[in-house]
Every structure is written in C-alpha cells, then in structure tokens.
Amino acid sequence: MRDEEKEPRVGPGPPRLALGALSGALAGVAALAVAELVAAAVRPQSGPVVAVGGAAVDRTPAPVKDWAIRRFGTDDKLVLQLGILAVLTVLALALGVLAVRFRRVGAAGVLLFGVVGAGAAVSRPDSGGVTDALPSVVGAVAGALLLHVLVGRLAAGRRSAAPVAGAAPAGTTEDGSGFQVWDRRGFVLAAASTAAASAVVGTVGRSLNGARGQSAIASRERLVLPLPGSPARPVPERAGLRIAGISPFVTANEDFYRVDTALVVPKVDATRWRLRVHGKGVRLPVAYSFDDLLRRELIERDITLTCVSNEVGGPYVGNARWIGVRLADLLAECGVEPPSRGGPADQLVARSVDGMTLGSPLEEVMDGRDAMLALGMNGEPLPFEHGFPVRMVVPGLYGYVSACKWIEDIELTTFDAYDPYWVERGWARRAPIKTGSRIDTPKPFARPRSGTVTVAGVAWAQHRGIDRVEVRVDDGPWQEARLAAEDSRDTWRQWSLPWQAAKGGHTLTVRATDRTGSVQTDKRTRTVPDGASGWHSVVVIVE
Across the strands, what pairs with 493? Predict the structure, then answer.
C-alpha cells in the first residue's frame, strides 16, 4: 500500500463540501463575534445584526409591520433578530461550500456582507457617522480571512502519487473523480481555535456592551422622584371592578405594552441627558438637563395610552400614573405660541436618541390637556423599556404621534415642511384616538355554565371620556352595561353586565359612546393609516 493512501483523503464530493459549510459557519460566527467586540468600542447600535435589523424595519411596508406586531406582539424584535441570524447562517454555509471550489470568491462574499452591514449602520437615523461602519467592516475582514485559512486546510497537502499501470490517472479515483490529500490535523486545529476564539471574543464584546449601560442603570437607581406640585386625584374606590378576568385599572409597568422600533433598548445616563428645544417660534434654542426638569413643578396624572397598531379588541392599550413636567409651560417659556394664537409652527417634532421622529399637532399639545415630559411611571422612574430618562405623554393622541420615548430633541416646525418617521411610511399626520371598547371576560370560545354570566371589559376615548357602554347578545337589543366610576376623561373605564346565559353558542358584542355623544362605529377598518375601528365581539359556548 502506498504511503499516500494511508493519509486521509477528501474528494470534491459531499464530505469535503460539508467541511466547507462548517468552515463558512465558523467564519460567520467569528465575524459576528469580532463585530460585537468592535461595536462595544463604538456603540452597541452599530453592530451588524442591530444595524441590518433596524434598516429592515425602516424599509418594511406599514402593513407588514402591522402584521408582525399583531402576530408576535412585543417579541417582534426578537423574532426579527433570530430571522436575521438564520439567514446569515444559511448564507455562511453556502459561502463555505462555494469557497471549496473558489476560495477567493467565498471570502469576497463574506466581505460583501460586511459592506451591507456597514451601509446599514451609517444610514440609520441615529448613526454616529463613518465610525458606525467599523464593526461590520472589521468583522467581515476577520471572517473572510478565517474562511480563506480554514478552506485552505482542506486543500493543503499533495496530490496522490502516480498509480500502478492500468489504474486511474494520478490525482483521481478509479471513477475519474479528483481528490487531494488534506491536512486533517491542521483543519481540526484551525477550526477548534476559531470556535474557541469566537466564544471568548463574543463574551468579551457582550460584557463590554453591557458595561456601557451601567452608568445609566446607576443613574436610574439613584433617582428619587420629588413629590409632585400638582398630584393626581385619588383613584375613585369604584373605578376598579373586582371581576375575575377584567384588566386592572392600573396597568403594572412590567405588563404595559411596548411597541417601538428599537432593537436594542437605549440606556441613557440621566446625568448626561440633555433636551434641546429649537425651531419656528422659539426665541433662542435652549437645552435642558434632567436636573433642570426635576427643579420644575411636576404634575402627576392618570393617563391611558393606546397604540395605533392596536386591532379591535387588541392588547396595546394600558393605563398608568405618570409624573413629569407640563410640556405646554416649558414651550411657552421658550416663546412658543400655538397656531391659534399666531404661532408660526403647527407641528412639534420629537426626536429620540435612537433616531426615531414623531410629529405632534402643536395646538393639541398646548390646548390645556396634561401633555407632559414624563419622568416617572406608577411611582418609580421610567423603566428603560418605556423611555428612561424622559418621554412624552399626550392624552388623546395615538402613541406614534405623541409618545416619544428616550426623547432628546424638540423641533417646532410645520406639517407642510416635515414628515416624521411613520408619516413617511403611510400613516396619518394627525391621529386622535378613536373611541374603543373591549370584552375582557368571558374570553373567546369560553365555555361558561348557563345562568348568570358576568360580561366585563374596558372602554376608552381619551380626552373625551366614556359616557355609555352597551352589550348585545347575538342579534338581540343593546343592553346598557354598568360603568365603573370615572377617574378622569383621560383614562379608560371598566364596565360590566350580568347576562342570563342560555345553553348554546352565542356572540357577544360591545360598543361605547363617548362624552361628545359619538357612538363607536361598527365600520371595520385596519390599523393603517389612523387606527382600527369596529365593534369587538367574542363567541362563547354556554354549557
């Protein structure tokens, strides 16, 4: 037996391609690990997965975004990132297979994805400039070099010696296919080293990225909110009904809905935070620190927020007690006047630290409602997920035109001059919250026993208030429900109705009437462009 035949050999078939795919996967993991480490030195949002994910969100049509929110809820960002990683994995495997035959082409493919990541990073609204391209570029270079080295181990060695007379030509098997002796030990060592180094680099990168937010966490932990100069009224004792299954009157912070585009929750140090106010009608641009806001008179109010992505009967509505600075007073001190009093601006554009822009109608912000720059939520500093250190809250307007989280800039302009983020993507410029109601209990397809069944839920018409709620069983007459006590016209109201349920299948439907006398419409519309409408119904089977 020839010495060459004692060496491990890999032909161009499946075994070698499988090892090429493994090489691609290892190179891809290494590229992401290096990119995360570099992102720790630049900023977490510049990492390729976050940058590409953000760019994907920006370019996704509004109906698709709406579907993702309905389908995955607050997990939509996790699903997106997992999807990106899955696609990158498939592409890495494919590039590894390609590199077996065309090593330079495979490596060039890795570099190309680095270019894509760099382009996404520098094009984000919150981009810090060309430095945001570094994580993707450096990671891609590292991945390309590693792929080149790993695949090179598969091609290392020598052609098999000339065969005996009558055998297949040298360098081929008897069926004519070629093979090379490969450096098994070198490949295993290189692959193991790559995997170990990637794990170390990735761990260090994640640790450093986490450390960047420690000062923000510390600033929140140290914060003690002062007592409000204008406290909220005590919630009426009968505002919350003691009915199993109904939404609590106050939504706990951990249960409050979250809908935004931030793949990485910003962690802003309150001691370094600044809010700039400028634009049309502002006498001189001014910047406020967090301490500046704390020294002002604070107001405390119960306000229900609603997301424009909330489907009929959906979960994206919640009620909390907010504490903050009255926004109208702050604007007035800067010289701002609403358009009804001759002010040149009719739109307030709020900008977040992550580049998000929201446009609010200035007239509503300054019409006397409790619009505020909120600092606290339900008795504690804002959670990071809900905008710490400062966010906007404006009663009566959907969140996408009023509830800017992590706010850092306010510009006074006009609707004709500027379209903010969501308006550019097909949503309405003005979006007062529509009168809505929801059945919380019984749940859809519940199977209650015949007899008295309590039907209950919530209704809202922020800044107008709820005057009446009615329930219909099948096609029967509307029956007026009992309303819980009203806290304020800016909060939802609970309601209930005792129903004498007969056996069989039934459809329960609810509608509300607001304080202006407007009855909730039965016309079904989707959330785009200015919020869903229609009556909420549930089907139950009475046993």
Answer: 459
Specify the length of the chain in residues. 543
State both tokens at 380. 């504690």
Measured CA to CA in angstroms, residue 474 lies from 501, 506, 538 at distances of 11, 6, 10
The proportion of the chain whose per-residue pLDDT surpasses 70, expressed as a percent, equals 92
Position of tokens 């003005």?
Answer: 430
Answer whether residue 4 shows pLDDT above 50: no
Phi, psi of 408 (to 5 degrees): -140, -5
DSSP state of 229: S
Instruction: Give the mean pLDDT of 196-211.
Output: 85
Reported as a single tens digit per residue, the pLDDT across 451-473 is 999 999 999 999 999 999 999 99
Cβ neighbours, 10 Å, residue 14: 9
Q: Is 130 helix (H, G, I), strand (E, B) or coil?
A: helix
Among candidates 513, 459, 510, which has minimal Cα distance to 484? 459
Enter the DSSP assignment of 341. G
Amino acid 318: pLDDT: 98
| Cβ atoms within 10 Å, residue 244 | 8
**Cis bond leading into 442, ω under 30°?**
yes
| Residue that the structure tokens 């109904």 belong to | 246
How far apart (Å, rounded) are the C-alpha atoms in residues 86 and 83?
5
pLDDT tens per residue across span 328-382: 999 999 999 999 999 999 999 999 999 999 999 999 999 999 999 999 999 999 9
pLDDT digit string, tens, across residues 254-312: 999 999 988 889 999 999 999 999 999 999 999 999 999 999 999 999 999 999 999 99
Mean pLDDT of the chain: 89
Looking at residue 163, the DSSP 8-state letter turns out to be P
Amino acid at 438: R
**420/408 Cα distance (integer angstroms):** 15
Q: Which residue in the block uniquely carries the two structure tokens 């505002």? A: 239
Instruction: Please name the residue that has the structure tokens 């990735």.
Output: 202
Max distance between CA atoms of the chain, in angstroms, equals 103
Cβ atoms within 10 Å, residue 354: 21
Burial (0-12, 13-18, 19+ Cβ within 10 Å), 430: middle
Whether residue 339 contacts residue 362, with contact meaning beta carbons closer than 8 Å, is answered with: yes
Share of the chain above pLDDT 90, in %: 70
Tell me the H-state helices in 6-130. Answer: 14-42, 48-59, 62-72, 76-101, 103-123
Residues 6+ apart with CB under 8 A from 135: 35, 36, 38, 39, 42, 46, 47, 48, 117, 121
The token pair that represents 490 in the structure block: 């800016």
Tokens of 99: 């590199």
Enumerate residues 6+ apart whose C-beta is below 8 A from 515. Answer: 461, 464, 465, 466, 467, 489
Which amino acid is located at 263 in the chain?
L
Residue 543 CB burial class (10 angstroms; 0-12, 13-18, ≥19): exposed
Helical H runs in 124-242? 134-155, 184-212, 214-222
Give the SS3 label for residue 239: helix
418-423 long-range contacts, CB within 8 A, separation 24+: 418/347, 418/349, 418/359, 419/359, 420/349, 420/357, 420/358, 420/359, 421/125, 421/356, 421/357, 421/358, 422/62, 422/358, 423/359
What radius of gyration, in Å, describes the C-alpha atoms of the chain?
30
